[in-house]
């Protein structure tokens, strides 16, 4: 069974940093693109970043480009999101999502999410 | 970038009613369109992909149609457990933009 477990969320001041992790199991991590999607309280879903399977080419939403860095460690089946220069508007639940293939944009499995709160 | 819109933003229907909601892309995306269901307090779940293919385990009362820029999600007979917000998402290329969602309630 596919399982995605996010961690690393918490309360941080504006301008601060956090590193999210997503431990994956139940599938061949190397051969699947992975994505971070966020949802602000009471709001809709927002695509944040994706990384292709294999060598891991990254992609970012304009709202986080230059501040967030996505990476993956295929040996540990773990996805990361390094978030720098955090803003109040980055407050959200961050979901780790598995795509259906190595370069796919179709996402079929979501983790439970980790909460990030940016506030002074 | 391609923008995604959904209508209506919310609807209320009776149990057993047929429910339709639409998703529109600002440019054609072929059939690279997915629908997700997010029940209150829960994680989103994939319902339909390739615009009309039902994900394994999804009840057959759900169906999707459309191609190019206009898509529809239909619930043929609304059930109490279908109360949720439904999101469409394009996945032809990045950015993998979501629509703003349609919130479905029962009367």
Description:
The complex is a heterodimer of chains A (120) and B (107). With 120 residues, chain A is mainly β. Helices cover 0% and strands 51% of the residues of chain A. Chain A has strands spanning 3-7, 10-12, 18-25, 34-39, 45-51, 58-60, 68-73, 78-83, 92-99, 107-110, 114-118. In chain A, the strands form two sheets. In chain A, strands 2, 4, 5, 6, 9, 10 and 11 form a seven-stranded mixed sheet that branches. In chain A, strand 7 and strand 8 (78-83) form a beta hairpin. Chain A starts with a strand and ends with a strand. The mean pLDDT of chain A is 96. In chain B, strand 7 and strand 8 (70-75) form a beta hairpin. Chain B is globular. Chain B is mainly beta and 107 residues long. Helix content of chain B is 0%, strand content 49%. In chain B, the strands form two sheets. A six-stranded mixed sheet of chain B has the order 2-10-9-4-5-6, with no helix packed on it. The interface between A and B is medium-sized, with 21 and 26 residues.
